[in-house]
Design brief:
It contains 14 helices and nine strands. It has 434 residues and is an alpha/beta fold.
Length: 434
C-alpha cells in the first residue's frame, strides 16, 4: 500500500486531457478517414425503435412528450415499491477511475448496516457501471468490490494511435467490453428483473451523438425481456455510457424507423449529463411529482467539484487542461444544483458525497491498481465511520485547496468537520484489501 501512496504523489495530467490533446492533433491529420456507418441518409430519430423491445425501454431527457407519457406510470411503480414509506433515490455520477470511490462507499455503507433499499437508481458513465450492482442489492457487493478495487480495470488503456487517425478512438474498445461482459451475467440480469418487477427503477444515460441529446435507458425493463438479446442490449448500453468520445470507440446500436434499419451512435452519458436525478425537462415543468415528497436523495459524485488552485502556464497543454477541468466540474456542479433545487421543491432530504479536493486523485483515466485500491478503501472507510455524507450547500461552497495531500490516508472524509482540509486524526487501514 505504501508504494501505491507514493505513486499518488507524482504530478499527473488531468485524466482525459493528454489523450484529448493528442486526439486534436490526430483530427488535423484524419481528413475524411473514419469507420463507415450503416443507415439511411435521412431518418426520423424521434420515432426510431429497437427491434424486439417495447418503446418504453428508453426516452429523451429533453422531450416533454416523452416525460409526460411515462411520468404517472413510473411514479406509481416506485410508490408501490416503497410500500408506503419514503422513496429513496441513489444518483451515481460519472468519473472514470473515480468510480472506485463510489463503489467503496457503497460497500462500506452496506457493512455499516445503514444502507437502505433504493426505489430509484440512476447512473452515468462510471456511475452506470456501478448502478446495476447497487440496484441488485448488497448481496452483489463482492462483485462491486472486485470490479472497482483495481484488479479488473488495469488493462483498459490500450492505445492505438493509428485508430485515432483512421478509426474512431485513441484506445481499443475490447478491454472495456470484456470488463462489462464479466459482470453482466445472466444471474445479474435475473436479479435486476426480479427487483424491477417490484416497481423499482434502474436508469442510466447515454449520449446520442446524432441528435446530441441525453437518452435515458430503463435497464430494469430491458432485463425483464430476458434472453440473449436482452443481455446484449443491456451490455451495449453500459459500454456506451462509459465510452468517452474519442477515447473509447462509440457504441453503434441498431434501430428501425419506417421499415429502415440504421445505426445510432451512442457515447458517454457525461457528454451531455454528468449525472441525473430526473429527466432534464422535468426539472423545469410544473407537473406534480407528489410521490417523491418526503423522500431521500443520495448523490455519490465519483469526482470533485474543483481542482487545486494553480497558476496556469501560458501554453496550449496547460490552457486546455485547466479549461477542460473547469468544464467538467462546472457541469457536475450545475447538475447537483439542479437536483438539489428539484428535491427542495418536493421536501426531499439531500445528502452528497464526493472525492475531497485534498485527495490526490490521479484523474478519470488513472486505473493504476494501487491507486484504485486506495480510493476504494477511502470511500469504504468514510462510510464505515459515518462520515460519508455532507449537505449539498456545504459540498458546493468549499474553497479550493492550494495543494493536494501528500498522504491519501490522512485526508478528511467528506462528512467530517472541516471537510476538505488535512486531518491527521483520520487514518485508513494500510492494507484493507488483499
Amino acid at each position: 500500500m505504501a508504494h501505491g501512496i507514493a505513486d499518488c504523489n507524482r504530478p499527473r495530467p488531468h485524466g482525459l486531457l493528454l489523450p484529448g490533446i493528442l486526439l486534436l492533433s490526430c483530427v488535423l491529420l484524419s481528413g475524411c478517414a473514419g469507420v463507415p456507418r450503416r443507415g439511411a441518409p435521412a431518418v426520423d430519430y424521434a420515432n426510431a425503435t429497437l427491434p424486439g423491445f417495447p418503446p418504453d425501454i428508453r426516452w429523451s431527457a429533453q422531450t416533454r412528450r416523452d416525460f409526460d407519457g411515462r411520468r404517472a406510470r413510473l411514479l406509481r411503480q416506485v410508490q408501490a415499491a416503497a410500500r408506503g414509506g419514503p422513496i429513496n433515490v441513489l444518483v451515481l455520477s460519472g468519473g472514470g477511475a473515480g468510480g472506485a470511490f463510489g463503489a467503496g462507499a457503497l460497500a462500506g455503507w452496506s457493512r455499516s448496516g445503514t444502507r437502505p433499499e433504493f426505489q430509484i437508481v440512476t447512473g452515468v458513465s462510471a456511475g452506470a457501471l456501478i448502478a446495476p450492482l447497487a440496484f441488485a442489492g448488497q448481496d452483489w457487493d463482492p462483485e462491486l468490490t472486485e470490479a472497482f478495487s483495481g484488479g479488473q480495470t488495469q488493462h483498459l488503456m490500450h492505445a492505438r494511435w493509428a485508430g485515432a487517425i483512421f478509426g474512431a478512438s485513441v484506445y481499443r474498445g475490447e478491454p472495456l467490453a470484456q470488463l462489462v461482459d464479466r459482470y453482466v451475467t445472466d444471474d445479474l440480469l435475473t436479479a435486476i428483473a426480479r427487483e424491477a418487477e417490484k416497481g423499482r427503477l434502474l436508469l442510466v444515460a447515454t449520449t446520442d451523438l446524432d441528435t446530441e441529446q441525453t437518452v435515458i435507458w430503463n435497464l430494469g425493463l430491458i432485463a425483464q425481456q430476458g434472453g440473449a438479446k436482452s443481455r446484449r442490449l443491456f451490455r451495449d448500453v453500459l459500454i456506451a455510457s462509459v465510452s468517452v468520445p474519442g477515447i473509447f470507440p462509440p457504441m453503434m446500436i441498431r434501430v428501425e424507423q419506417a421499415g429502415e434499419d440504421f445505426e445510432e451512435m451512442h457515447v458517454d452519458g457525461s457528454a451531455t449529463a454528468s449525472m441525473f436525478f430526473i429527466p432534464d425537462i422535468a426539472a423545469i415543468l410544473p407537473d406534480p411529482l407528489e410521490p417523491l415528497h418526503g423522500g431521500h436523495l443520495y448523490v455519490l459524485v465519483n469526482g470533485g467539484f474543483r481542482t487545486p488552485e494553480a497558476t496556469t502556464r501560458n501554453q496550449t497543454v496547460s490552457i486546455v487542461r485547466r479549461s477542460a477541468g473547469a468544464t467538467l466540474q462546472g457541469g457536475t456542479r450545475a447538475a447537483l444544483e439542479l437536483a438539489y433545487s428539484v428535491a427542495q421543491r418536493h421536501q426531499m432530504s439531500v445528502a452528497v458525497s464526493e472525492i475531497p479536493d485534498a485527495y490526490p486523485f490521479g484523474g478519470t483515466l488513472d486505473f493504476d491498481p494501487s491507486r484504485m485500491r486506495a480510493l476504494f478503501s477511502f470511500g469504504e472507510h468514510c462510510a464505515l465511520v459515518g462520515q460519508l455524507w455532507t449537505d449539498p450547500i456545504d459540498a458546493l461552497d468549499q474553497q479550493p485547496v492550494r495543494a493536494l495531500s501528500q498522504r491519501p490516508h490522512t485526508v478528511q472524509c467528506p462528512g467530517a468537520e472541516g471537510h476538505g482540509q488535512y486531518a491527521e486524526q483520520v487514518s485508513l487501514p494500510r492494507s484493507p484489501l488483499p
